[in-house]
TrEMBL record:
GO terms for molecular function: protein-lysine N-methyltransferase activity. It comes from the Eukaryota. Residues 39-280 form the SET domain. InterPro entries: SET_dom, SET_dom_sf, SETD3_SETD6_MTase, SETD4_SET. Gene3D superfamilies: set domain protein methyltransferase, domain 1. This is SET domain-containing protein 4. PANTHER family: SET DOMAIN-CONTAINING PROTEIN 4, UNCHARACTERIZED PUTATIVE METHYLTRANSFERASE.
Amino acid sequence: MGRTARIRGRKHKRFLDKSNIHDFSVLRDLDHWMRSLNWSPTCFLTPHFFSGTGRGLKCLELIPTYQVLMKIPRNLLITTFSISQSEIIKIFSKTRNYDPQTVLSVFLCFEKHLGDDSKWKYYIKSLPDRYTVPDYCKNNEKTILSSFILQDLPKQSQRVVNNYKMIVESINELRNRGNDTCGHCRGYLREILSFRDFKWGFYTVNTRAVYIDSSKNANSLVNIYGEDNLALAPFLDLFNHSYEASVDVGLEADDDSREFYRIRTLKPFPFGSQVFINYGAHSNAKLYLEYGFFIVDNPLDEIFIDYGMIERSLLLSKDTGEFIRTNGFDRSIGFSAEGFNYHGKIVLFVISTDLGQSYWKERIYRYDFSENEMLRIAELGIKLVNFKKMELIEKLREMKKSVNHSESFKIFLSLTDEYIYLCDKCLGNLTSRKSNN
């Protein structure tokens, strides 16, 4: 889906992926094409370039609560059923099972290859040429990304590779039967569906697909494993994300039994404002990994601390370390701008308390700490957050030594700066609590 990040004045303006800022004539063509296929707007929205978020949708009227923001007819949704009407369906062997994202990725690649002969050409032209998710960082940049991204990126990257290998194997089976050329241009499918193109298709789906009720999805004629619940909807990717937005989405039918994908806002939007939707309750690490952007001052953001860093930074007794690990408190230790999370506070309490171990569990499960204990937790927390802040500053300094940054890496540099700022906010709150005790 769409992308957004509100940038503070102290930071440089958020990088805007030029491949995602098309001439608005492309969007006018998309609008005209959709109207020709019985789509009509449900409220007065217009594409607009916003200084903080880039391309988005601006309302030309007051939008009240429960207003339908968009209704996309079922015939304008790209689902796995769409491939049943395409020549490229021959790639999908009846002896293999494919996940929906792979099917949609191949479909998009082939439709892009068809160019002006594609039914979906106006939608394809509205899509970016590349994305800003971390998998689009250069290889040397990937090696110096921070651990909170590196722990999930290899799994995602490998999924793209594995899914592509399955497609190559399917194409090889067609080649053995002399049926591996495109009926449109007579080119070889292996060349048309390159890894670069497949990766583009994969992340188009990853950043833009919406979920629909799989029970209402038509049979795709392809062996699908997992939930067949993904759909691409033209125009919807113009809606940017905000954690403050609240929407109700789903398939619905009108009185003539025609189905639509509908988005209804549960909050009003004033005249002239940008209209947002909500992709889910995501931290900045999740937003960057899945969508290629982050949000400044994201209240859902959290920095996690490796327990190994705590052991290296603080002198822990054997009994203390064993208690923390045995009870699983060493996992998911983190802090937000407001302070430490549950596991973080528990670990800080156990490390700082003078009480004997027999009292620890009672205190922990009552989650009832004295003023003196809260003071110690705050003091130790300040020390740990400062350790993490220094680690991030050093990491940022190291990353900035590289040159010719990819656009994805530029966003990650800004994200790291945002995490340093989050540390400062947390330190401010912890210091304030310490002073009040």
